[in-house]
Protein 1
Amino acid sequence: MRIALAGNTQREKDSPTTSDSSGPELTARIHINATKPRATRSALADHPDARPNGTRFLDKLDLYGSEPLSFLLRYDAPWRTFSLDEGFVCYLESRRAAVVWTDPLCAESELPALLGAFGRAMRAQHRSVCLLAISERTAQTAIELGFSALKIGEEPWFDLANWHTLRGNRGKKYRWAANHARRMGVEIEEYRPGEARNTRFESEVMDVLGRWRAALKHSESTSFLRAAPFEQAPLKRIFLARRDGRGEAALACAYIPAIEGWYLEDSFRAPDAVNGATELLISVALERLQADGAAGAAFAMAPMRGFDDQLDRRARWIGRVVGRAIERVDHHYDFGAMARYEARFEPSEWRPRTSPFYRRYRARRRSGLPCESYPLDAVSSRPWPVVPLPCRAEPVPSAGSVK
C-alpha cells in the first residue's frame, strides 16, 4: 500500500536512474562465476528473456518473488539485472551506486553466492550498494558477507488462514469506523480487470484518484512508485467504496504468485470521503481475499517502527539515537500515526524490513592493491547513509484523505 502521511508529507524520491539514457543499454545482464569472472554480456543482445519483463525473468519472479515489494519489478523502470546461475538481482543504477529493489530472486541456498558475486561486481565498477527494504533472512546473509545493515521499519502481514475481523475492546476503534461508514450508506464493489474490462468502473476509480491528487500539497512521484491501480491489470483486484452512487475511496490489491498472497498496494480516498470508508474498504477486501483461499496479505511498511531493534549490532547505537530524534520530529512525518493506523487491523505479525549497504571501495589508491585483494567484508561500517523509504502514498484518515 502506498502511504501518504498526514500534515507535511515526506514523499518518496524518484527512483535512481542510469546515467546513460540510451535505449538498449538501460538493461544489462552481468554473468559472474563465484570463483572465475566471465565477460559481461548485453541482456538485449544475447539474452532477451533475462531482462525485466522477459520470459525467464518473470518465471523467476513468479517462483521466488515472495516479498510484496517484488511486485513493483513488473513495472516499467530502468531496471538492470545481474544473474548468477539461475538467480537474479534486479537493481537501479546511478553513476556511483546500485540500488537493489527487494530481495534477490533465487533459492535460499543460492543467496550467499549470488549476493556475494553481485557485491564483487559492483565493487569492480566502484559503486556503492544499497538493498532496499529486504527481509530479515536476506539481511542476515548480507551481514555475514560483510554488509552493514540498518533496519528501517516493519511490514504488517496478515496470515489469512487464521485472521479474523477484530472483536472485543482491541478492535473498537476499527469497528466504530467501519460501522459508521456502513450507517452513512457506503457500499463496496469489487472489480477484477483480468477477467473483463469495465470502463465505467475504471473511470470511477480514476476520478477518486484525480480528486486525491488535486488535494495534494506536493507533486506526486512520476517513477514506478506512483499510484497506478490498473498497471499489470491481470494481476489486480480493485475495490471501490461508493456513497450515494459516487466513488469515495479505492484499493488496488496486487497478486504475489510465489506466496499465493496479495499486496495491498494502492489505497486512496477523496478529501470529502466519509470517515471509516477506508477501514470498511480494507476490511471487506481482506475478508474476500480470505474467502477465495489467499494465503496472506501485506500492507506497506511502517517506516521507523521498531527502529531501536537492530539486527546489525553496529547499528544499535544508531537505532537508539535516531529513534529519539524521530520522536521529536514525528509530528512532521507521522510515522507513528501510520504504524498505529495499520495496527488497527491487528496483523498476524510485523515483519522487519532492513536496508543492508556498503560504500564503494576507496582504499585501492592508497594501497596500490587491486580490489580483489580485499574480502567483501573489508568495508566501512560508517557513515550510515540516508535510506530512501519505499512507501507509497496514503494520508491517515485523521488528515482527511487517504492515498
Protein 2
Amino acid sequence: MGSGHRGSVGGQLEHFLRESVVNPVEITLGGLMDFFSKPVGVLKPEDLEALARSGIDENQTLEFKSALPNHELNNDPWVKDRKINDAAKFEVLKRLVAFANADGGWFIIGLAEPSDGGTYADRLHPLPEPGDLANRLQQLASERIDPPLSVVSIEPVLTDEGADEGVVVMRSPRSRRAPHAVKGGTEDELLPAVARA
C-alpha cells in the first residue's frame, strides 16, 4: 500500500471517493458519510438536502428541529421577533452538553420532521437570519456551559442568500473535560445530560 492512511477501510473508501468518477453522495449511504465527515463550516445547502432526502432517524448522536426548541407550539420567537426565549436557550445548551458528555453529536435547527409524527429528516425548513442565530447560540454556549466546550461548532448554512434564510448546524464532539453542565439549570434537569454513556 502507498503512504498515508490508505491501508484502513476508511482510508480506502476516502481514496476510492476521491479517485472515482461516481458522485460520492450517491454511493455513500445517501450522502450520510460525506455529510458527517465534513467540518460544520464547509457544509452547503446540497449537503443538508441530501441529509433530508436520506430519511435518517434522530438517534443518540443526531437531533434536528424545524425551529428553536420551544414550549409554545407554533410560536417560535426567533421567527417572529428574532429573540431566543429562556426555554429555547436551555434546550439548545442542554443538547450540546448531552452530546459532549456522551459520544458527541449533531444538532440541526431548520430540518423538519414529517407531519405524520415520524422522527426522521423530511425536508429543509429554513429560518430567517441563520448567521445571527448561530452567533447568538455560540455566545450562549461560551457563557453558560461549564466547563466551557472548547470545540463546539455552531455555523449557519444559507439556503437562500438573497433572503438571508438557512439552517443552523451544531456539532458537539465528545469532550475529554466532561462532565459539563448548563449554568442556571437545575441538577434534576441536567441529570440525563451529565450521565456518560
